[in-house]
Amino acid sequence: MIQNNESSPILSGAIKRRTSRSVIIAHGDRQVIVGGDAPIVIQSMTNTDTVDAIGTAIQIKELARAGSELVRITVNTQEAAAAVASIREQLDRMGVDVPLVGDFHYNGHTLLKEFPDCAQALSKYRINPGNVGQGAKRDSQFAQMIEIAARYNKPVRIGVNWGSLDQGLLARIMDENAQRNSPWSAQSVMYEALIVSALENAQRAEQVGLAGDKIILSCKVSGVQDLIAVYRELARRCDYPLHLGLTEAGMGSKGIVASTAALSVLLQEGIGDTIRISLTPEPGGDRCKEVIVGQEILQTMGLRKFTPMVIACPGCGRTTSTVFQELADDIQTYLREQMPVWKTQFAGVEAMNVAVMGCIVNGPGESKHANIGISLPGTGESPAAPVFVDGVKTVTLRGENIAKEFQQIVLTYVQSHYG
Fold first, then answer.
1. Residue 281 DSSP one-character state
2. Is 288 marked as binding a ligand?
3. Rounded to whole angstroms, how far apart are CA atoms 219 and 136?
4. What is the 3-state composition of the chain as percent helix, strand, coil, each rounded to the nearest 5?
5. Which candidate, 301, 283, 346, 281, places its Cα nearest to that of 291?
6. What is the pLDDT of residues 337-346, one digit of tens each?
7. pLDDT > 90 fraction of the chain, expressed in percent and rounded
8. Residue 241 CB: number of other CB atoms within 10 A?
9. Does 316 count as an annotated binding residue?
10. CATH 3.40.50.20 is held by the domain 22-301
11. First-to-last CA distance in the chain?
12. Is the confidence at residue 54, as pLDDT, over 90?
């Protein structure tokens, strides 16, 4: 049975973001706000040896140029801690003001105390409550890190991970579960332990003296449905800003698909204030790929705009030539490479759409919907490529220089329509 609904329009868009506190992460005049009404923040992490201050600074610059608004670095040894201030100084000399986040495990209390230059150079600390110590030492060492954060006015992400969950807390939750008339499943107990760990440690941090608007929470797991279930409940129980990420997402398409599947569901429900895509790089691969994937998730969902979007058809038997594939790739690369300059000169250019289509079936129509579109000839079609600007056909390109001529049309459009 088909039913008509003429009483209300069909609506689209994500659910309104959950209400959360705002946390300011700053370096000099640069402020990145996580939570509240601020846009969802993209962040990433280096995979260099932090002791290599030059190599680490170069990778941070690359990540920041790609669009990472926060960059996390490993601080795991005395040598790494000693290098942090030098890394910050090198970035400042290069004009890179991205805030740095220090990732601490096991010995963070010692490193922050012994290397005050490191503690001050970092804009935020990440503390894993499952890796701060055992028994009585655990509470003391956690408190020491929080006290230093409060002293230097640094925000903290309390980042729980199911691969390093506090075993004492897990045992307590399991004991409580055993007393229930209808005990929960092992999976539900694990979810509860993750959430309780995050919330109890946030409360402990406030008791030690860290302001509530200096705390961000995360509960990372590597399963898509697990992540969705945990964050839905975590979001329900608190108003701290939430850091989203599928930990150990994997390599290549698997990591991209898994991260996109998990984060998109939560973001659509208004959950999440900052995201990191934890991709395993291909051997020799570009670390910046995780930044681009994060941007594309937010942009394709309509939550933020980072760079002009290229719309291109997938190709079929009508498009046996690779011309449109090569042009789409060239234009997409060109747009992303230009954005670091364009975003300072041409306000709003990140909202532009460019269509590169392969044949007459959808080519002209899709090109008319974009700001600029080109419909390339398919197999057996006349060797001509009409170009549409804001829905109007302006020129038809022919010959060997179509790619260069179309790129110039794009540049002219940007210069005349934005800024």
1. P
2. no
3. 24
4. 45, 20, 35
5. 281
6. 999 999 999 9
7. 91
8. 26
9. yes
10. no
11. 52
12. yes
Q: Where are the domains of the chain?
A: 22-301, 309-418
How far, in Å, CA of 74 to CA of 76, rounded? 6
Using a 10 angstrom Cβ sphere, with 0-12 exposed, 13-18 middle and 19 or more buried, the burial of residue 332 is middle
Is position 313 annotated in a ligand binding site?
yes
Contact 126, 160 (CB under 8 A): no
405 with 331: CB under 8 angstroms? no
Instruction: Choose among 72, 135, 146: nearest CA to 108.
Output: 146
Kindly state the helix (H) or strand (E) to which residue 85 belongs, with its residue range.
helix 78-93
**Residues forming a β-bridge with 103:** 74, 126
Q: Are 123 and 154 in contact (CB under 8 A)?
A: yes
* 124-127: strand order across its sheet: 215-220, 156-161, 124-127, 100-104, 70-74, 41-45, 274-275, 243-244
d(CA 330, CA 226): 39
- Residues 220-255 have pLDDT tens digits of 999 999 999 999 999 999 999 999 999 988 899 999
What are the CA-CA distances from residue 228 to residues 200, 217, 376 (Å)? 21, 15, 42
Which residue's entry shows tokens 């096991």?
A: 106
Residue 188 CB neighbour total at 10 angstroms: 13
Burial 356-376 (b: 16+ CB within 10 A, else e): bbbbbeebbebbbebbbbbbb
Q: Is 34 helix (H, G, I), strand (E, B) or coil?
A: strand
Q: What is the pLDDT of residue 192?
A: 97
- Please count the residues of the chain: 419
Tell me the C-alpha distance between 306 and 292, whole Å.
Answer: 9
Which range of 64-73, 162-171, 246-255 scores highest in mean pLDDT? It is 64-73
Query: Residue 207 contacts by C-beta under 8 Å, 6 or more apart in sequence?
Result: none
Let me know if 200 is exposed, middle or buried by CB neighbors in 10 A (0-12, 13-18, 19+). Answer: middle
CATH superfamily of 309-418: Sulfite Reductase Hemoprotein, domain 1 (3.30.413.10)
Residue 296 among known ligand-binding residues: no
Q: Which two tokens stand for residue 329?
A: 């790739």
